[in-house]
Design goal:
444 residues, mainly alpha, Preprotein translocase SecY subunit, 2 domains, 4-stranded antiparallel sheet, two-stranded antiparallel sheet, 17 helices
Length: 444
């Protein structure tokens, strides 16, 4: 406790860090207040009654979780930051397939600014397309929710939803520039974690009932949740370090090189993207079946065995796919060879690329299997009798995002402390965030 107080005092002594933390908290407060501002023309009482009788799941539940409940409340921030994430994924995929975007990625800061501008424009387009669909599915489908003319409401609501998403994007960028951590990720985390108090209270109340198992069962659930969180931290931070030796060079009177560096290959290089892609794919059959009047089959029961078996299989497949896109062994090998580096015992060039590819294939298998297991844990928790609201925190996208964002933010805070010659956040070791696979210098 004493060390915690000292660490907090050290953080407060660094004026820049203090201002960044206060700025972040202020912008988060604005975001949370905005998520409760309902679209003009909505009858909130009718909407609340309709939501109480609905049973939304699948991708709708995921979007609502990311938006912190604003999606179901028909808030001005109803679409949240998801259109921006969609636009970012599209731009990222274009950067892998279209030469024009590949060229921009190699132009440094100027190229990054152009890509960000294209992402903003695409976000407006995506939001404008999603807004009418959102209104049709979440507002018009519930009789009596809209208290004014539907045509006029649709026009103004679409404009407001687009403006709301762009404002959230602006808040995220301001947090990144003036605050602490990655702004977009922090806003998603705040939306997810806002449901935690209700989930814990609901689970605690259900356990105190006559057939609930009592306080002991609730404490066991908390212990198991902490174990899952620790496991997710290991998954996020797990790396396989490949030693890279650089040859000595004499430039003038100085010796350059001759040190050993490490290429850290992450066990889960794909992050949460495989889960997001798999959830989107699983939602399609149920949506098509719903439009055609069918039941949806195994895809309608998100807690059923076959649903989760297919879901886990898709996650494993998408993990390999996304890892192959994110990490190019040939490029890594060429960069090493160009800079005079080599993996001890492996020939530079093609042999090095094959070695890196082999290592990635080996570490991706356990990483993908564990990622799939974490993704289906909420379904297992529900089968074991845990409340559905609390079960969502036992795994899935929500928990992985929470763990990753917290580690990222703590890493930035620790960097400020170490740069000012204070002790870090941990007495032993250092916090490692979700930084991508880069060469980290280690003296041999």
């Amino acid at each position: 406790m004493k060390r915690f107080i000292e660490t907090f005092q050290n953080i407060w002594k660094i004026e820049e860090l203090k201002q960044r933390i206060l700025t972040t908290l202020g912008l988060i407060l604005i975001y949370r207040l905005g998520s409760y501002v309902v679209l003009p023309g909505i009858d909130t009482e009718v909407l609340a009654a309709a939501n109480a009788n609905s049973n939304d799941g699948g991708i709708i539940a995921l979007i609502n979780a990311f938006a912190g409940g604003a999606f179901s409340r028909a808030s001005i921030f109803g679409l949240g930051i998801m259109p921006y994430i969609t636009a970012s994924i599209i731009i990222q995929l274009l950067g892998m397939a279209v030469p024009y975007f590949q060229k921009m990625q190699k132009e440094g800061e100027s190229g990054r600014k152009k890509i960000n501008q294209y992402t903003r424009f695409l976000t407006v387009a995506v939001t404008a397309v999603q807004a009418p669909g959102y209104l049709a599915a979440q507002v018009y489908s519930k009789p009596g929710v809209v208290a004014i003319d539907h045509a006029w409401f649709g026009i103004q609501a679409t404009i407001i939803l687009v403006a709301g998403t762009m404002f959230i994007m602006w808040l995220g960028e301001r947090i990144t520039d003036k605050g602490i951590g990655n702004g977009i990720s922090i806003l998603i985390m705040i939306g997810i974690i806002s449901r935690l108090p209700f989930a814990i209270t609901s689970e605690f109340g259900s356990r105190l009932q006559s057939a609930g198992g009592g306080l002991i069962m609730f404490l066991l659930e908390i212990v198991f949740l902490l174990f899952i969180i620790v496991s997710c931290i290991l998954l996020v931070q797990g790396t396989r370090r490949i030693p890279v030796q650089y040859a000595k060079k004499i430039v003038g009177n100085k010796q350059i090189g001759g040190v050993r560096q490490y290429l850290p290959l992450k066990v889960n290089a794909a992050g949460v993207m495989p889960i997001i892609f798999a959830q989107a794919i699983m939602f399609i059959p149920a949506a098509v079946s719903g439009f055609s009047g069918g039941t949806g089959g195994v895809f309608a029961d998100r807690y059923g065995f076959w649903y989760n078996f297919i879901f886990a299989s898709l996650i494993i497949a998408f993990t390999y796919f996304y890892t192959a896109i994110m990490i190019n062994p040939n490029q890594l090998a060429d960069d090493m060879k160009r800079n005079g580096g080599f993996v001890p015992g492996v020939k530079p060039g093609k042999s090095t690329a094959e070695f890196i590819d082999q290592v990635m294939s080996r570490i991706t298998l356990p990483g993908s299997v564990f990622l799939a297991f974490v993704a289906i844990l909420p379904s297992i928790a529900i089968k074991l009798g845990i409340n559905s609201a609390f079960a969502d925190f036992f795994g899935g996208t929500s928990l992985l995002i929470l763990v990753g964002v917290v580690l990222d933010t703590l890493q930035q805070i620790e960097t400020y402390l170490l740069n000012r010659h204070y002790d870090g956040l941990m007495q032993n070791g250092r916090i490692k965030g979700r930084s991508s696979n880069q060469m980290t210098m280690q003296q041999a």
